[in-house]
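Give me the fold.
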Amino acid sequence: MNSSFDIVFMGHFARDTIISPDGTTSNSLGGGVTFGTLTAHNYNKDHKIGVFSEKGKDFNLSWLDIFNSKIDLTGLCSNSEHSTNFVIEYFPEGGRKLTLKSKAAPLRFKNIPPLYLNSKSFMISSIANEVSYDFIKHLVDNTKGWIGIDIQGFIRDFRKDGTINLEHVPQLTENMHKIMNYCGKRLILKGSGNEINYIAKCNDVIESTQKIAQLGDFIVCTTLGSHGSLIKQGEKKMIHIPAFVPKKGIVDETGAGDCYLSAFLSEFIESSPNWSDVIRSACIGSSAASFLLEQKGPNGFGTKNQIQRRIQERNIIPSHFENTVKNNNF
């Protein structure tokens, strides 16, 4: 495929206001677009990367200084009064509370720079339902590249006060199933265990991963934190991918899933689409995420050599999923 771009990241930037357990407040640029773009650039600096997003009048352009000049930002649109802003409050006993304070305009397919449409791949990181089924439909119809989708922002339901409704919303699941069906074999679907359970309407991550994979011949990646991840495609045997030990310890888990999918795509688009390459790409994603955990905010990104070396060292976190998956025909 003759392509001007290798990966185009799509979704809102997030203007995150972070409240630490000690009550101190800081601001950071967040969202899957941020973490995904920086992961991909650090993994392969020869890749041409584009960003399609929306910002408001309150967006501080100095926040974009973290991006290398090689990253194309011509897809950053300004059709909104406000940027997407989350307040993220971390608790001393663990856990966090996420509150949506403002939201930029939805992404519109007509605003995508035409050159982006020839990309080898697209990573869609919705954080607040800013990407619709119609947007995905137009993207599939007008492109040929792989489509990586992070489930998270497609199934978030926000209350009027901006907090997240944890109850199941059937319309969100139905919408996600329509998207999966329309993307077909070009889809690489990534979700946490809870998110995969949500769209599968099941409470067992292995069963849920199987159920989603049986909906079509696309790749499913279920991330499980320190328990690694599960990958499955159609009728192929499920594989457990280990999590790698962060040598500097876990400082911040924000963006780890975005990092996983971005590194997966960065490796996969340079490979042939066979099952062994899918497995290798998932190992790359898992190793890349372990580097992000070691630093606060969008800062801990491993290079290709560092990520591959960590895989070779095999300093993995043990998980019961390894033997369960290996010893059963999932």
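The mean pLDDT is 94.
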